[in-house]
TrEMBL record:
The family this protein is said to belong to: Belongs to the NAPRTase family.
GO biological processes: NAD+ biosynthetic process via the salvage pathway
Function summary: Catalyzes the first step in the biosynthesis of NAD from nicotinic acid, the ATP-dependent synthesis of beta-nicotinate D-ribonucleotide from nicotinate and 5-phospho-D-ribose 1-phosphate.
Alphabetized PANTHER family for the sequence: NICOTINATE PHOSPHORIBOSYLTRANSFERASE
Ribonucleoprotein in keyword set: no
Domain Nicotinate/nicotinamide phosphoribosyltransferase: 164-345
GO MF entries: nicotinamide phosphoribosyltransferase activity; nicotinate phosphoribosyltransferase activity
Protein name: Nicotinate phosphoribosyltransferase
Occurrences of domain Nicotinate phosphoribosyltransferase C-terminal (ranges): 372-478
Metabolic or biological pathway: Cofactor biosynthesis; NAD(+) biosynthesis; nicotinate D-ribonucleotide from nicotinate: step 1/1
Annotated Nicotinate phosphoribosyltransferase N-terminal domain residues: 14-144
Organism listed in the record: Pontibacter virosus
InterPro entries (alphabetical): Aldolase_TIM, N/Namide_PRibTrfase, NAPRTase_C, NAPRTase_N, Nic_PRibTrfase-Fam, Nic_PRibTrfase_pncB, Nicotinate_pribotase-like_C
KW Transmembrane (keyword) present: no
Length: 496
């Protein structure tokens, strides 16, 4: 059973918007359900005003697509839906069609943990129109959230540098699934462990934690509380020292550690959860070092995010483990990634491709037509530029990349510059092409990818923007298509 099914123990096929099913019904009635279509999933702006985004969620997308199969219960529910005049919304023959439906599209995707940029398709779905349309919403719900949280985690890790970061957010997460998906995505993005046990079990990721204030409150004194915890966990105790008075708590922790030392006890760490974390960590470090406990960790928590972690480090805080909850799992400063899923190519009856786009008043919201691929150029120092192009059309010898937002901004890439195409086959006619990487491999990939970005793009505040754009001919094709559609629109208006 897939991890998603383990969690929900039921079919997830109805995890989509009603309008996906009404469109599916319409396509089926029109006889175009099986016509080949290409959709791309992409976002328009990096979250958190950052310079890069970390792709995440693909493994769950694949699990979702592979389990797609309407059960008798699902079909009975759909059959029970009624229209405006109390007639069944869907006719029985359509429900019979759904009963036999399996996901048979080709899916190409940028691997999880990759750095990605606006307009680049993270996922390309090519296959029967009805199927490719139906999965829009679940793909977006999975990828938007996990990509958002993986990116937030990468930023926190960027600030924490070589220190450990533990995700503590379940209690403040957006519900049960929010907490689990966030724990996984945060791990993809670079945190080292989670306090969320179910995430640890489902996703095979490390779990870690300390104890709460209630533990201290449940004993007649802080000393008794620390002693009892220390006896239970002689090698895994991190004492929370701020229940009453932080520095007094540190002294108590040291006393208890010394007392338990002959029994083989070693204090793994202390945790600070309030007050001036710079001052308190510096003073705590002094006390611990004076007691010879130089490798006892100092963990800090309390509404931390990448900016506070960064500031505390700049202030000289002596914290070496960061517990981050609310701000991470809710992506507090930007609670959603605006990823979209757009139709870009549709086969006509004569077998030719019809490249389509969604027009918008705002240039950045006009989608890209064609069967897209992303080519990333690199040199010995790292990534140089990304180019979105139409795979179905020949590429010119000389590579010119045009900014999607300002066509006067262009970058030429010298001939012979090495490159790789980022979208890789994941499903062929619905079948897994090869095993997906596990979380450890995804994390390693993310680390390598971020390492190839210039510092100016990695920085948290006002980063430089990475050159990512459209191949010049592709850009011209899109512009011509936009002009043609606008002209058609005007002609229609005049004809009225
Ligand atoms: N030296 C510091 N520089 C910048 N921010 C800090 C510093 N020390 C703590 N903070 C942050 O300041 C924010 C506010 O902390 P605040 O003082 O309100 O908490 P507290 O009252 O000490 O703790 P609590 O409300 O949990 O008892 C928190 O996000 C915390 O991480
Ligand atoms: O602050 P976060 O980044 O979300 O990290 C998790 C917080 O959860 C716990 O607090 P608790 O639930 O006891 O609440 P409080 O400390 O906010 O009072 C813990 O002591 C952290 O402060
Ligand atoms: O283990 C901890 O210290 C912890 C877990 C969840 C939330 N806050 C702290």
């Amino acid at each position: 059973m897939s991890t998603l099914q383990q969690l929900y123990r039921s079919s997830l096929s109805l995890l989509t918007d009603l309008y996906q099913l009404t469109m599916a019904y319409g396509y089926w009635k029109e006889g175009i359900a099986e016509r080949e279509a290409v959709f791309h999933l992409y976002f328009r702006k990096p979250p958190f005003k950052g310079g890069y985004t970390i792709a995440a969620g693909l493994a769950h997308v694949v699990e979702y697509l592979q389990q797609l199969q309407f059960t008798e219960e699902d079909l009975a529910y759909l059959g029970s839906l009624r229209g405006g005049q109390n007639e069944p919304l869907f006719e029985q023959a359509f429900l019979d069609y759904l009963r036999d439906l399996r996901f048979t599209c080709d899916v190409d995707a940028i691997p999880e943990g990759s750095v990605v940029f606006p307009s680049e398709p993270l996922i390309r779905v090519r296959g029967p129109l009805l199927q490719a349309q139906l999965v829009e919403t679940p793909l977006l719900t999975i990828v938007n959230f996990q990509t958002l949280i993986a990116t937030k985690a990468a930023r926190i890790k960027e600030a924490a540098k070589d220190d450990k970061v533990i995700e503590f957010g379940m209690r403040r997460a957006q519900g049960i699934d929010g907490s689990l998906a966030a724990a996984r995505a945060a791990y993809v993005g670079g945190v080292d462990a989670t306090s969320n046990l179910l995430a640890g079990k489902l996703f095979d990721m490390p779990v870690s934690g300390t104890h709460a204030h209630s533990w201290v409150q449940a004993f007649e004194s802080e000393t008794h509380a620390f002693e009892a915890y220390g006896k239970a966990f002689p090698h895994d105790s991190v004492f929370l020292v701020d229940t009453y008075n932080t520095l007094e708590g540190v002294r108590q922790a040291i006393e208890v550690a010394k007392k338990l030392y002959p029994s083989g006890f070693k204090l793994k760490g202390i945790r600070l959860d309030s007050g001036d974390l710079t001052y308190l960590s510096i003073e705590a470090r002094k006390l611990l070092d004076e007691a010879g406990m130089t490798d006892t960790n100092i963990v800090a928590s309390n509404d931390l995010d990448e900016n506070i972690v960064n500031s505390l480090k700049q202030q000289g805080a002596r914290i070496n483990v960061w517990g981050v909850g609310t701000q991470l799992v809710t992506a507090y400063d930007q609670p959603a990634l605006g990823g979209v899923y757009k139709l870009a190519a549709f086969k006509q009856e004569n077998g030719d491709w019809n490249y389509t786009l969604k027009l918008s008043e705002q240039l950045e919201k006009t989608s890209n037509p064609g069967i897209q691929q992303v080519r990333r150029f690199y040199d010995e120092n790292g990534f140089v530029a990304d180019m979105i192009y139409n795979e179905a059309e020949p590429l010119p010898e000389k590579v010119l990349i045009v900014s999607p937002l300002d066509s006067t901004r262009r970058k030429s890439v010298p001939e012979g510059t090495p490159y790789k195409d980022l979208l890789q086959p994941v499903l062929a006619k619905g079948e897994l092409v090869q095993e997906l990487p596990d979380l450890k491999a995804i994390r390693k990939h993310r680390e390598e990818e971020i390492g190839k970005l210039h510092e100016s793009i990695r920085r948290l505040l006002n980063p430089h923007s990475y050159p990512a754009g459209l191949e010049a001919n592709f850009h011209q094709f899109k512009t011509d298509l936009v002009l043609a559609i606008r002209e058609k629109g005007e002609a229609a208006l005049k004809a009225r």
